[in-house]
Amino acid sequence: MTDPIRLARRVAEIQRCTRAEAEQLIRNGWVSVNGHVVETPQLRVADERVAIDPNARIEAVEPATLLLHKPAGVDPIDGPKPALALISPDSHWSDDQAEIRPLQRHFQHLQPLATLENEASGLMVFSQDGRIVRRLTEDCDQIEHEYVVDVEGSIAPYGLHRLAHGLRFEGRPLPACKVSWQSEARLRFAIKAARPGQLRDMCAQVGLEVKSIRRLRIGRIALGKGPAGAMPAGQWRYLPVGERF
Q: Which residues belong to any copy of the RNA-binding S4 domain (predicted)?
């Protein structure tokens, strides 16, 4: 029996590359052991069959950012129904255009960002990328978010103007935002720095009761549409490499 060695060393021997390049190949999912993809360079192998995908490319190991369509009633972080539990290989949107191969490491160490209220649905972000984390935390209040809000009731006189200019929330005046009717019972908000409960409170101030809230966009990144329509609730897609909020 052959003495066990680290998988990265075996791949370096097969591929005639450096140990660092071998680790990149393994972490990017190009290496299989006995027919199963392995992403752990330190795994020790002896007589196992090690194969490298013929399409393998030596490239940097990029952190992943996943975009989830959170359903209403799902907890954004903590709670009995956390949104993170929805993210798995099985719930990957079939119309995802990012052309990123799902890997096991993409589901590890994901940080929830741009959270939504439990009752709201729509775009929510989970990322391993420190640049994305900083962007959606430190610069969050400067990024415009787009929502559609289904409402009931009769809007007060000049209510649409008041929604866009001049309301207060939790004792503070609100900055201007963009508000328009999408239908007789649906409003569109393009707004920055919205706080939990703010959209419901704004609508209540002009005589409207909110029935549902859905976030469509964060900055330049939208929920996503494919040939069959918008990405369904409970499914996720990758943020393509190079795209930014």
A: 5-63
Q: Are 133 and 179 members of one domain?
A: no
d(CA 176, CA 140): 16
Q: Are residues 107 and 228 in the same domain?
A: yes
End-to-end CA distance of the chain: 53
CATH classification of the domain holding 148: 3.30.2350.10
Considering the entire predicted model, what is its pTM?
A: 0.90
Segments of 60-208 assigned E as strands: 65-70, 111-113, 121-127, 144-152, 168-169, 172-173, 178-183, 186-192
pLDDT value at residue 166: 82
Q: How many domains is the chain partitioned into structurally?
A: 3
Which distant-in-sequence residues (6+ apart) come within 8 Å of 134 by Cβ?
Answer: none
Instruction: Tell whether 127 and 156 lie within a shared domain.
Output: no
Split the chain (245 residues) into runs of 10 and give each run's mean pLDDT: 88 95 94 94 94 93 96 94 96 95 94 95 97 94 97 96 94 96 97 96 98 98 93 97 91
- The predicted pLDDT at position 113 comes to 96
Encode burial over 31-69: b for 16+ CB neighbours within 10 A, e otherwise: bbbeeeebbbbebebeebebebeeebeeeeeebbbbbbb
Q: Decide if 130 is inside a domain.
A: yes
**Helix residue ranges, H only, 77-180:** 130-138, 159-164
136 and 148 in a common domain: no
Q: Quote the pLDDT of residue 137.
A: 94
